[in-house]
Amino acid sequence: xxxxxxxxxxxxxxxxxxxxxxxxxxxxxxxxxxxxxxxxxxxxxxxxxxxxxxxxxxxxxxxxxxxxxxxxxxxxxxxxxxxxxxxxxxxxxxxxxxxxxxxxxxxxxxxxxxx
Amino acid sequence: xxxxxxxxxxxxxxxxxxxxxxxxxxxxxxxxxxxxxxxxxxxxxxxxxxxxxxxxxxxxxxxxxxxxxxxxxxxxxxxxxxxxxxxxxxxxxxxxxxxxxxxxxxx
Lengths: 115, 107
Prior knowledge:
heterodimer, A: 11 strands, B: three-stranded antiparallel sheet
């Protein structure tokens, strides 16, 4: 598959669970991003990785833990989440970073519900 | 603080009517602005950026520093323009998005 893929597309988890979101890009890009989109709020940047190194951590709680093992894959590890963490989590990639220099390509998102 | 405001949650027009999606920003430096679009069942994608001064799918957006605005315009709306539109501002090296405006174009 081409572009940016995300799995799973939907996830329901309890507050004590541990789960991971996966993002994969097939575009040969060097930068990857995690965004959170809550209802009635703007898209919020969470993390940025450029050449597999984290370059941005936008004051995100430690219950969200990103991992970028290589330039094609990005994970978001989740543990002891709160109901207010329920949102759409979008992954994006770009040829490089900073983000404005290169168009960002978005994945379809993972709809997360924390019960 | 850097901020992007899209005052309209929903804009409904008939096919052939002009469209203007409003975007205002708050930024202390020289802004770099973008419009992203999300069509039904598709992913978010870049529509245009102000530095390119381009027209994409008939849409244009002019940066007005005096009014701190970057409104998206199209003279004649088409049904296929129905989508969610997000204005975004580049702050240092990250994008700040507005809350989005849903455009509905009726036949």
